Amino acid sequence: MKSIKVLAIDDLSDNLTTLRAVMADQMPEARVISATDGPHGIALAVSDDPDVILLDIAMPGMDGFEVCSKLKTDHRTSSIPVLFFTAQRKDRDSRVKAINLGAEGFIVKPFDEVELIAQVKAMAKVKRANMSQKQEREKLEKLVEERTADLIRQLTERLQIENALEKAAANWNKTFHAIRDGIAILDENQQIVQCNRAFEEFTGLEEDDLKGRHCHDYVHQEGHPVEGCPFLKMFRSLRRESMEMRINGRVCEIIVDPIIDKQGHLSGAVHIITDITQRKRDVEVQHLLYGIASSSLMKNSLDELVNYLWKELGKVIDNSNFIVALYDSESDLFRKVVFNDEKEEVVAWTASQSLSGLVVRSGEAMLLNRAERDKLVTQYNLSQTGHAAECWLGVPIIVRGEPAGIIVVQSYSNGDAYDESDARLLGMVAHELAVVIERDRMVRDLIEAKERAEQSETRFKALHNASFGGITIHDKGVILDCNLGLSEITGFTVAELIGMDGLLLIAAHEREKVMANITSGYEKPYESVGVRKNGTEYPLRLEARNIPYQGRAVRVVEFRDITEQKSAETALIREKERAEESDRLKTAFLQNMSHEIRTPMNGILGFLDLLREPDITEGEKEKYIDLVNRSGQRLLTTINDIIEISKLEAGEVSLILADFSLEETVQYQCDFFKRQIEDKGLALVVSQGIVGSKALVNSDKHKVEGIMTNLINNALKFTERGSIHVSTTLDNGFICITVADTGKGIPPDRLDAIFKRFVQADLTMSRAHEGSGLGLAIVKAYVELLGGSISVHSVPGQGSTFRVLLPYHSADHLPQPDNDRVVQPSDESLAILVAEDDDVSFQILSMMLAKTNHRLVRATTGQEALSLFNAQHFDLILMDLKMPGMNGLDAVKKIREVNRQVPIIAQTAYALMGDREKALEAGCTDYMSKPINRKLLFSKIAEYAPGGRGLKKPAV
Questions:
Q1: Three-state SS annotation for 606-650
Q2: What pTM does this model have?
Q3: What is the pLDDT of residues 770-800, one digit of tens each?
Q4: Are strands 552-561 and 537-549 parallel, antiparallel or unpaired?
Q5: Do the beta carbons of residue 185 and residue 151 sit within 8 Å?
Q6: Per-residue pLDDT band at 954 (split at 50, 70, 90)
Q7: Percent of the chain with pLDDT over 70
């Protein structure tokens, strides 16, 4: 959905805050900008070009009328719709003045949220339509001016450049006929010389029938000029003239541009017809909505309002068949308010047997053609009485979330009579009817309540006290009666409230405003501040009516405690702040990732450049190679962390349970880090409490190794002196793995943050330690996958202790050791097809196999690999999965169609979850991830060479 930009100009910041909250809740795609005075608002309108301007009338200095006048007289802002905020619903003079200044509508404060959103959306739509029409027209005018000038030159110089004219005619005609507006070239007698296809569509005749005929016959359709004829006016003024008129049922704008020859004489004209039906309709809809909103407040009855709506709707849609009916849920009946229909007259009908019933039950508008209607009738076994319409549109009237009625328009002849825009328009009309129905119900309820009170005081009190809010009846502020709800809200007893000055229930700083509303008879809901018996203040919503009571005019007031609503608004603000904090943390994380990728890349490229120096010694060369390797390992670790956290985020990491020795795994990890720890001058202490047969466990060995690796590596990075202590124990059915260090420690306020993704204990640019910062997040994820928990205790300056608890599951037997051996290059000569599009990757493979007798043949695409395989014999194929054109997987499938025995080893730089399975499913024999390990490469070649064990069960 396209974002809507709203400019609110109001000198009261509270009003602006309320507006932002409503827009954020009801219309999240909107962006609200604001100004508290007129000059600032005008400047924002010019600079930001909002879709709608909400403008308060009463403002100090420059009031709303002056602001509107300046906006509407400035060509930069004149097309922006202006909705006035007014607190005076019946201030006719202000409304007339605002309309004369160019304002498009009004919203009465305090505003109805649904009405506000509907008005804003309607105004934004009108602005976009106006801007689109303006831009299209400007383009067209420019194009017509250019083409007209070109045509004049061509006509004037036709005898001299006839050949060139014929060549250009094809392009001119193509453009001329592609223009959506109707264009005709006239001579000085208003006779048609040439016209485009759009002009033919407007008139209903072809160009051959139109040539030489007078334009009056087909535009004015009266055979003579009409009043205000633009051609006659242009003949006198020798400049562009225009007028609006209706042609074949469409509202059109007629533009006539003069064609002046080199001698300055009028030699003809360009006649342009633009269909502005939709633009006019949008304006009419805008005025219709304003009229409906105003009438809903002024009409005395629902019948009167519905008849007014019927007449006004006829200006914008086909309402020859127009139905408004109220719905009674108890009887499940519709009863007509208005039933204007060409073919039948119905007073009441059953909802459950009708399309109208489907609409009120769903609470959604329903637009149907004949076929869709028949399908629903059959599907829901609906009554088929009456005449079937070709196009049917029904919109529910919803009051307080419950169906109260329906609006229906239908056409018996036109299957395209209505569209979604008509459905939205009727939805707005239905809302206005709902407001009136609710108002009438409220008035009727009050009258009935009064009558019941006169008949039975007990029955009145029961209904009175059942209200969800506080209700009081007062005369000039003195409380005559109230319900229990008011007692519960204020803390006063009913006896204490009777006879009390009602203003004492209002905070002192709000009493003047409330008193002004009482004096003026104000009847719209508004917010204030209440005060309870104990002196505490609370946010309050008041709504009042003047009613007759016991022979005199009094005022009934509803008190609503809106503390929860205000709390919700505060919570929204807090959520916004948390979102902004999250964005800041993500930015810091990305900066760290950039650092962790660029730093080792800088080391790799820098030392590789130094290796090119001709005078370096062997010792320096070994040192540089070692540094390049270490930088590469650091970069690979960072990339692996990013890939692993991505897989964890996507839920693509699963457990692979197997039997293994926890004792051997822990010892291997400690041995692996021992040299690095000792090189840093630290002591490594290992205390294994789970040994022997107890150490034989069933779990995911890879995840346990990942936990150990990250915890020990974390301790190594943040410990400058002292020791690192690794221990294992059994604790009530859980494996307890502890890694303690004497490092810098973690501040208490960052203990929770270190396990979060995108968050690190130190997020500043001065971080002294390398690493992606994802290690502990990965540890926590692994621990939770295994069904365990992790905790940390840390003292800044003294060290940290990480404690992991994992469920203990004993294994049945010790796994057989996999006696890996170093595989030496085979002396056997193999023909190997290498499908690899990356030059560097191929060179690495070539160098790894340089000292072998193997013959390598390279293909850079899947198609090339397939062609080479079909032309030559190969003992083995190394297939990259990602290549341009035909990828590696598709190439493997093609090869397997003709050969199911040749070993194919897939290689990829992705190494994501599922890649191995996809490769094997496509027909690969085995799989290797990049960067390729030299030892693993030799092992795979030896395994799948002719006679190797890997060929016994080829994967196809």
A1: HHHHHCCCCCCCHHHHHHHHHHHHHHHHHHHHHHHHHHHHHHHHH
A2: 0.34
A3: 445 677 888 888 898 899 999 999 999 899 9
A4: antiparallel
A5: yes
A6: very low
A7: 82
Residues 539, 20, 530, CA angle at the centre, nearest 5°?
Answer: 10
CB 289 within 8 A of CB 119: yes
Residue 826 in this model has a pLDDT that exceeds 60: no
Higher pLDDT, 672 or 544: 544
pLDDT at 822: 41
Kind plus residue range of the DSSP H or E element containing 879? strand 876-880
715/484 Cα distance (integer angstroms): 65
Has residue 737 got a pLDDT over 90?
A: yes
8 A C-beta contact, residue 832 and residue 855: yes
Read off the amino acid at residue 407.
I
375, 350 in Cβ contact below 8 A? no
Which residues lie below 8 Å from residue 699, measured CB to CB, with a gap of 6+? 657, 658, 660, 786, 806, 807, 809
Cα–Cα distance measured from residue 605 to residue 595, given in angstroms and rounded to the nearest whole number: 15
SS3 at position 177: helix
* DSSP line for 368-432: EEHHHHHHHHHHTT----SPPPSEEEEEEEEETTEEEEEEEEEESS-TTS--HHHHHHHHHHHHH
Q: Is residue 660 classed as helix, strand or coil in its secondary structure? A: strand
Residue 319: pLDDT band by 50, 70, 90 thresholds?
confident
Confidence of residue 768 (pLDDT cuts 50, 70, 90): very low
- Report the 10 Å Cβ neighbour count for 783: 21
Q: How far apart are CA 891 and CA 880, in angstroms?
A: 10
d(CA 191, CA 99): 42
According to DSSP, residue 814 is labeled P
pLDDT score, position 820: 41
> End-to-end CA distance of the chain, in Å?
48
- Length of the chain (residues): 956
The partner residues of 553 in beta bridges, in order of sequence, read 548
3-class SS of residue 31: strand
Convert the pLDDT of each residue in 482-534 to its tens digit: 888 888 889 999 899 999 999 999 999 999 999 998 888 888 889 999 999 99
Separation CA 103–CA 101 (nearest Å): 6
Asked whether the beta carbons of 677 and 716 are under 8 A apart, the reply is: yes
Rounded CA separation 586/140 (Å): 48
pLDDT range class, residue 690, cuts 50, 70, 90 = very high
CB 339 within 8 A of CB 319: no
Q: Is residue 45 within 8 Å of residue 71, measured between CB atoms?
A: yes
Let me know the angle formed at the C-alpha of 76 by 50 and 129, rounded to the nearest 5 degrees.
60
pLDDT above 50: residue 456:
no
Residues 6+ apart with CB under 8 A from 42: 67, 70, 71, 74, 77
Q: Which tokens is 318 given?
A: 């086909």
- CA–CA separation, 195 and 186 (whole Å): 9
Contacts of 873 (CB under 8 A, 6+ apart): 831
Work out whether strand 30-35 and strand 4-9 pair parallel, antiparallel, or are unpaired. Answer: parallel
Q: What gap in Å lies between CA 326 and CA 407, rounded to an integer? A: 9
What are the pLDDT digits (tens) for 257-273? 999 888 888 888 998 88
What are the two backbone dihedrals, phi and then psi, of residue 244, each rounded to the nearest 5 degrees? -105, 145
CA contacts within 13 A on the Cβ side of 8 = 24
Do 4 and 51 meet the contact criterion of CB atoms below 8 Å apart? yes
Q: Burial level of 504, CB count in 10 A (0-12/13-18/19+)?
A: middle
For residue range 6-53, what is the model confidence (pLDDT) as tens digits? 999 988 888 888 888 888 888 888 889 999 999 999 999 899 989 899
How does the average pLDDT of the chain come out, rounded? 81
Residue 725 is predicted with a pLDDT of 96
Task: List CB contacts of 21: < 8 A, sequence separation 6 or more.
Answer: 569, 572
Contact 395, 426 (CB under 8 A): yes
